[in-house]
Design a protein that fits this description.
By secondary structure, the protein is α/β, with parallel strands linked by helices. 46% of the residues lie in helices and 18% in strands. The protein has a seven-stranded mixed β-sheet, with helices on both faces. The longest helix is centred in the middle third of the chain and has 25 residues. It starts with a helix and ends with a strand.
Length: 363
């Protein structure tokens, strides 16, 4: 499976789309807002090059209400800072990046007109020109011109790996991700792939971000130093149980299940820190871990929590599942998944862990 060709969120605006089921991601963006505000303020005050142009990149932008949410907030902050410092507003460039399979059409057809209308309403006649571009491609490679970016934001994207680690199919037959039954070589392979990918990411961005520029990255992760801890693996273990049920019923071949692995790694703060320090191009300004309940995937309406979590996970995982198992199993799979989620969420406190790091490009 070529991850760059398959990995994407469900497009469109339908019931199982990412746009409709990305509320937890929106809440995480809101939780990290103080860190983002702090970083953009520091960049504005320290980088002379933004006098005429301010360039923002959103990496792993997907398609939905979150795509331009951070950019809108950043433009508002720069607008306020410019006014308080008596400076002219710079021209803005917003670069939206995701893999080629992302639903860029929805962004430019549905989201961008609303974004521009809200921007004009907020800033009025004092609004500076704002240019928005789509940049398809993997962020595990160069995407932008050297020294062109002032601020980079990414949320819930960098846990995705460039590929399924080599050897995992042989060592990880009882799991679809790292789990309680994963062998040590499988866990090590996942971590090593994350280190390679994150190092590549940092090296590429070091070429593109100006000295004094910033990045705020939020990664689905864990607090524990145990890569197989429940806090980061449980959501996938329960999906694996649903798939195993379908194997027992003859709907899926066992070999198919044994050869399926999620190309993801959920790092700890210590692992993120280690990689940043080893690469060396960025200084850590902030590094913290936060939690958000699985139930926050939806509206919070009592009795619908597991339904909302199942839809959220379907919007994220369906393209990978369809590519490997085919489309015919999907509806039944997520009926089973919701049933399992209902049982576990009624008995346990279930949470996602977010690792957020704020980085400054060394001069």
């Amino acid at each position: 499976m070529e991850v760059v060709q398959v990995l994407r969120m469900n497009g469109g605006l339908g019931d199982t789309s990412y746009a409709t089921n990305s509320l937890v991601q929106r809440k995480v963006i809101s939780m990290t807002k103080p860190i983002t505000e702090e970083a953009i303020t520091q960049v504005y005050r320290s980088v002379d090059a933004i006098a005429n142009r301010f360039c923002i990149a959103e990496l792993g932008c997907s398609s939905g209400p979150n795509t331009l949410a951070v950019a809108a907030e950043l433009l508002s902050i720069v607008h306020q800072l410019s006014r308080s410092h008596g400076r002219q507003l710079p021209e803005f460039q917003i670069l939206l990046n995701d893999l080629p399979g992302n639903d860029f059409n929805s962004i430019f057809h549905s989201l961008l007109p609303q974004f521009r209308a809200e921007l004009n309403q907020q800033m009025g006649s004092k609004s500076a020109p704002c240019f928005v571009y789509g940049v398809p491609g993997s962020f595990y490679g160069r995407l932008f011109a050297a020294n062109s970016l002032h601020f980079v934001h990414s949320s819930y994207s960098l846990m995705w790996l460039s590929k399924v680690p080599e050897g995992v199919e042989e060592w990880n037959k009882e799991e679809i991700y790292i789990g309680s039954k994963s062998m040590a070589p499988a866990i090590n392979a996942y971590y090593n792939q994350f280190r390679v990918d994150f190092d590549t990411f940092l090296k590429c961005r070091s070429e593109e971000v100006v000295g004094g520029g910033a990045m705020v990255l939020t990664i689905l992760g864990r607090k524990s130093e145990n890569a197989a801890s429940k806090e980061c693996c449980y959501i996938w273990e329960l999906l694996a149980l649903s798939l195993k049920e379908m194997v027992s019923e003859g709907a899926i071949e066992e070999e198919k299940l044994h050869s399926f692995n999620i190309p993801q790694y959920t790092p700890s703060p210590a692992e993120v820190k280690r990689s940043v320090e080893e690469e060396g191009s960025f200084a850590i300004s902030r590094l913290e871990a936060t939690e958000i309940r699985w139930a926050d995937c939806g509206s919070g309406e009592s009795g619908y929590e597991s339904y909302d979590v199942a839809k959220c996970m379907r919007s994220v995982a369906e393209p990978l599942l369809v590519e490997h198992f085919g489309e015919s199993i999907i509806d039944e799979l997520f009926v089973k998944y919701q049933r399992i989620l209902t049982d576990r969420m009624s008995k346990e406190e279930t949470k996602f862990v977010n690792v957020t790091v704020s980085l400054i490009r060394r001069g």
